[in-house]
Design brief:
This protein is 29% helix and 27% strand. By secondary structure, it is an alpha+beta fold. Strand 1 (69-80) and strand 2 form a beta hairpin.
């Protein structure tokens, strides 16, 4: 009986040992799997687009050339004894004093001289005979024409018409003002041409055939002689205009004369760096 119990106990112990020996590899090889929580995601940053202020632009104050304006001055004056009338318009420039003073002084001066001479002539005139009704009227009228103007150059033609009572006819005459407003100076004819050029005779040779062709008995060479003693010219977009008063190149009946010479005809003697360089660019 005892032997049977010992066998049963031995069998049970043997079975237990076998079970344990089979489980040992699993105990050493299979460790419990650690479940780790996933790492916190890296913080995400929302980029907020902030409008950037525009870069400060450097303000450069470009000095604009001051505008120079042509303005009218006018006069109307009449008198009964002696009987006369003055009705005229003449130019002034409005702008920086330094640039316009010379022009205004000369324009005013010439008009004042003309009016003074007119009034002296009226005072010296015999007038009408007493008892023959209203005495005849003496008059002075004048106006001007801007032949060219670009804020830098101003070319102006002043036209006068004067009549002294009891005279045979009125007396028209003219005067030209050519002014460089950028520098505040008047232009002379030679300023337009290259130094050393005989511009008077070149112009005269171009004017002669034109005046001769008008059929009023023009004498060749007269225009150059007049230009030597008196400047009366104007700038035009298309050319240089030479003006002549009555009796200078023709009789009174022929009236005032002028000739326009194209810039192309003068290009060989014009100064490309002179005041009218833009005309020949």
């Amino acid at each position: 009986m005892l032997t049977k119990q010992v066998k049963i106990a031995s069998f049970l112990i043997l079975t237990g040992l076998i079970t344990i020996s089979c489980s040992l590899p699993l105990l050493f090889t299979s460790q419990p799997e650690e479940t780790s929580e996933p790492p916190d995601p890296a913080p995400t940053h929302t980029l907020q687009v902030i409008p950037s202020e525009p870069p400060e632009t450097e303000i450069t104050s470009t000095m604009q050339e001051p505008a120079i304006q042509l303005i009218d001055r006018s006069i109307f004056e009449e008198m009964e004894e002696p009987r006369y009338e003055i009705d005229g318009v003449w130019p002034n420039l409005e702008g920086p004093e330094l640039l316009v003073t010379a022009f205004n002084s000369e324009s005013d001066r010439f008009v004042d001289v003309v009016m003074e001479d007119f009034l002296l002539a009226v005072a010296d005139s015999p007038g009408g005979m007493e008892g023959e009704g209203e005495p005849p009227l003496s008059y002075l009228t004048f106006d001007y024409d801007l032949t060219y103007g670009d804020q830098q150059l101003f070319s102006i033609y002043l036209a006068f018409d004067q009549y002294i009572a009891m005279s045979a006819h009125p007396f028209p005459f003219s005067y030209a003002l050519n002014y460089d407003a950028q520098n505040g100076v008047f232009l002379s004819l030679e300023d337009l041409f290259l130094p050393g050029t005989d511009h008077i005779n070149v112009i005269g040779s171009l004017v002669d055939p034109v005046l001769e062709g008008r059929g009023f008995g023009y004498q060749l060479g007269t225009a150059a002689d007049v230009m030597q003693t008196r400047e009366n010219w104007n700038l035009l977009p298309e050319g240089l205009r030479i003006n002549f008063d009555v009796y200078e190149v023709a009789s009174y009946a022929a009236g005032l004369q002028y000739v326009v010479i194209s810039w192309e005809d003068l290009v060989g003697i014009l100064d490309p760096n002179g005041p009218i360089s833009s005309f020949i660019a």
